[in-house]
Design a protein that fits this description.
alpha+beta, eight-stranded antiparallel β-sheet, about 25% helix
Amino acid sequence: MDYGWILLTDEEEKEVWSKFNKVFHPRPSKSIFPSYIPTPFIQYDISNCYTEEFIQDFEEKAVLAFQKCTIPGERIYALDWQHDCYIVDAQKEFPRHVPWRVDNGEWIISIYPDGDYHFFLASDFSWGILGHPWENNITIYGDKLLSCFSKAQPLMLHKVIIQG
């Protein structure tokens, strides 16, 4: 079965992270947080939203949002800082149980930042989800994606920290 997740080569990964660094100017740290988020954006506190119910609800609504924001064949980036990164066909299935995963209970890269930075981004970086593990927040940016999430109302995204 074709799940839509394609592992980036080392070269592709370097190119994507280089572009990411130019756009966001990140400074991974436990005390200094990314210095730039494209507007418009909404940043949410997710510090009390780590249960399976919250994560699964967010995953389901994110898939629908990704599908509404893309056309067939269009791919998005799924980036996990310091780990393998992928390009994903958003129109295909995002299964929680895939044969090559040991735990078989999560996406290949979780939408919840579970210890590392997790990012889901349009291929042109015009919209995306930025997950910060130590700050316990998720930022959604870009008109297109914000519009989709405003209709979906994920349980996890109820406590706004800041909007811009």
